[in-house]
Specification:
about 100 residues, mainly beta, five-stranded antiparallel β-sheet, four-stranded antiparallel β-sheet, 9 strands
């Protein structure tokens, strides 16, 4: 298993670490797909903080039960840190929605 972490950095950048395809993604709304089954959305909102959410990509394909998903505080003080444990073969891509 690999441990992926996602967090907002500045007001228009989401950083992803620890997973295939990890990178910095630009925008004040960033949608990422993990392994084709998990959608991660970061939105930069007033008063200057990041909001994070997760959901299934498709209604008939559940998020695997062995994927541990945690939301923790990030040390930068303005973004939560999303941590997801996924199999080693899983990657992340930016969604065009």
């Amino acid at each position: 298993m690999q441990t992926a972490s996602f967090y907002g950095s500045s007001d228009d950048l989401v950083e992803v670490e620890g997973i295939r395809g990890a990178d910095e993604f630009d925008g004040d709304v960033v949608n990422l797909i993990v392994g084709g089954v998990l959608m991660v959305t970061f939105i930069y909102v007033t008063p200057g903080v990041w909001q994070v959410g997760v959901r299934q990509v498709f209604n008939d394909v559940p998020i695997p039960g062995d994927w541990n998903i945690l939301i923790l505080p990030h040390s930068n003080g303005y973004s939560p840190k999303l941590v997801v444990q996924v199999p080693d073969a899983v990657g992340v891509v930016q969604a065009c929605v």
